[in-house]
Write a structure and sequence with these properties.
Shape: globular
Strand content: 15-25%
Number of helices: 17
Protein name: Apolipoprotein N-acyltransferase
Number of strands: 12
Structural class: alpha/beta
Largest sheet: 6 strands, mixed
Enzyme class: transferase
Function: Catalyzes the phospholipid dependent N-acylation of the N-terminal cysteine of apolipoprotein, the last step in lipoprotein maturation.
Strand order of the largest sheet: 5-4-3-2-1-12
Order of helices and strands: HHHHHHHHHEHEHEEEHHEEHEHEEEEHH
InterPro entries: Apolipo_AcylTrfase, C-N_Hydrolase, C-N_Hydrolase_sf, LNT_N
Pathway: Protein modification; lipoprotein biosynthesis (N-acyl transfer)
Length: about 525
């Protein structure tokens, strides 16, 4: 393409005026974008707003200098995460909330700066309408995916909460997650947001053509068929919500949590079920070391004529574990723990302090909230119950892709997700967690029994539908004939590989565009003042 032709193309791309917004406007837009993105998540669940917020956030990155983009990105990230995880302040106060929000803000700012570079470089290399509409949204979305993926695993296991995908657990787009997994699902949502912005700016294509293209893309995503689930059997499950006062600062007596779940379970003695599931920390006394707790577990198993899955804190020598036990008859007239899952990835700064010797002196009063360090479990993630294999995910495990990949490799045909939400009061934290559990059910094609000490609890089918549900802060139980499945979804088989391939594609395109931005043709166009204006 000649310099004149390329100059014309860039002029057309910039035909709306200056590439970027004034810095103050960009900062304001970033704040609003973070709030709008959060509105798409539970409990408001206005799911299209997350896409709108992401589009506004991506647009705000356009035409800034790198330094300005770091500032705007930090403001946008703080707005989004600060609102989304406000539930941390309910009992723990502002300091943990502020620390976690700042950590995620740093990732958000770095990702935002890469968005700015993509806006600057990609149209210079692929300047035609087809190239711009194809490559620019793809690179922008891959950068969004990169930021989510890295912050979700690093440091100390990362914080994989608040993905774009998590806003879409009950929408027409939800079935896509079974095909691609949550990471690529976030990419698709970011791509859709970025594509909308780029399409709006692309004046080289007629308004009618742009409208038709937008309609075609949205229609294709909405009508994409759900991956077919194949039900292999059923398991009758009783899940118990004891409404136990199980929070970190709860004023309870030793054994209160155990008593609360025991009392609710007594109301269903004699029901014909295959398993009884109690939440995380349901037994605040370890039945492996306490005769009274063991006697209650034995009673439940005997009266229900079914195994008990129960969350408790266990010890092995000097090590402490957040555990779930499978308590069942031993075949000799007695009962006991026949299997155990120890949480593989305890939550940093909640269940353990990374580098405690170095970190604790920095804020002793704050870190006294984490008085002990749970050890990292090394057991498998599944229990064998009759002819079924139940995957176990304790609380924050629900966002850990690696744990779910492991339990699928180990043959899980149903998933139990015991959790304790008592530290977050009547906030939307439990609804956010339930939304993630629902996405897992669809992603993996497995029923999920999400059972909490205080709610919200639900039994979810592989299609993402509720078989039953319990409200927060209400004692109760769910008894359902739950479908099991052994098929493998594309998401379970290839989702993570696709995620890293998309990231590699986006970074490669950005690197190529960046390396060629000083070519003679681009220098001529830049010198003519037709590319990005000076950063503000």
């Amino acid at each position: 393409m000649s310099v004149v032709a390329r100059t014309h193309a860039v002029t057309a791309w910039n035909g709306r005026g200056p590439l970027g917004l004034p810095l103050l406007v960009a900062l304001t837009l970033a704040v609003v974008s973070g709030w709008v993105m959060d509105l798409g998540h539970p409990d408001t669940n206005l799911w299209p707003l997350t896409l709108v917020g992401a589009a506004l956030m991506i647009f705000a990155a356009r035409g800034l200098s790198v330094r300005s983009s770091l500032l705007v990105g930090a403001v946008g990230g703080f707005s989004y995460y600060g609102i989304h995880i406000w539930w941390l302040t309910v009992y723990l106060g502002p300091v943990p909330w502020f620390g976690l929000t700042i950590a995620q803000t740093a990732f958000f700012a770095l990702g935002f700066a890469l968005l700015t570079l993509a806006w600057r470089w990609i149209p210079q290399l692929w300047s035609g309408p087809v190239g711009t509409l194809g490559m620019l949204p793809t690179v922008l979305a891959s950068i969004w995916l990169l930021r989510e993926s890295v912050s979700g695993v690093w440091p100390s296991g990362g914080f994989n909460w608040a993905r774009l995908a998590h806003s879409q657990s009950e929408t027409p787009l939800t079935p896509l997650v079974a095909w691609v997994g949550p990471g690529v699902f976030s990419f698709i949502l970011a791509w859709l947001s970025a594509f909308g912005v780029v399409l709006w700016l692309e004046h080289r294509v007629s308004r009618q053509s742009r409208a038709a293209l937008a309609l075609a893309v949205v229609t294709a995503l909405v009508v994409w068929p759900a991956f077919p689930t194949t039900i292999s059997g059923h398991m009758s499950v009783a899940a118990i919500q004891g409404n136990a006062d199980a929070g970190l600062f709860a004023q309870y007596e030793r054994g209160d949590n155990l008593r609360d779940h025991h009392l609710v379970t007594q109301r269903i003695y004699g029901e014909q079920v295959d398993v009884v599931v109690w939440p995380e920390n349901a037994s605040d006394i370890d039945p492996l070391r306490d005769e009274m707790a063991a006697a209650i577990a034995n009673e439940v198993v005997r009266e229900m004529d079914a195994p008990l899955v129960v969350g408790t804190i266990t010890r092995d020598g000097d090590e402490t574990f957040n555990s779930v036990l499978l308590w069942e008859e031993d075949g000799q007239g007695g009962s006991g723990a026949s299997d155990q899952y120890d949480k593989i990835h305890p939550v940093p700064f909640a269940e353990y302090l990374p580098a405690r010797e170095l970190i604790y002196p920095l804020a002793p009063e704050l870190f006294d909230l984490v008085p002990r360090d749970y050890s990292f479990g090394t057991r498998d993630t599944v229990f064998s119950i009759d002819s079924h294999t139940a995957g176990i995910a304790i609380c924050y495990d629900i966002v850990d892709d690696a744990i779910f990949a492991q339990m699928m490799d180990e043959g899980a045909d149903i998933i139990f997700a015991p959790t304790n939400n008592a530290d977050f009061g009547r906030t939307d934290q439990s609804l956010q967690q339930l939304a993630i559990a629902r996405l897992r059910a669809v992603e993996l094609g497995r029923s999920v029994v999400n059972i909490s000490t205080v709610g919200t609890s639900a039994i979810i089918t592989p299609e993402g539908k509720d078989l039953d549900r319990l409200p927060t802060y209400t004692e109760g139980y769910m008894i359902e004939r739950v479908p099991t499945a052994t098929h493998t979804t594309p998401a379970a088989r290839w989702g993570k590989q696709w995620e890293w391939w998309l990231i590699a594609l986006g970074l490669s395109a950005l690197a190529i565009a960046g390396s060629r931005r000083h070519s003679p043709v681009r220098a001529s166009v830049r010198d003519a003042g037709l590319l990005n204006p000076p950063g503000r």
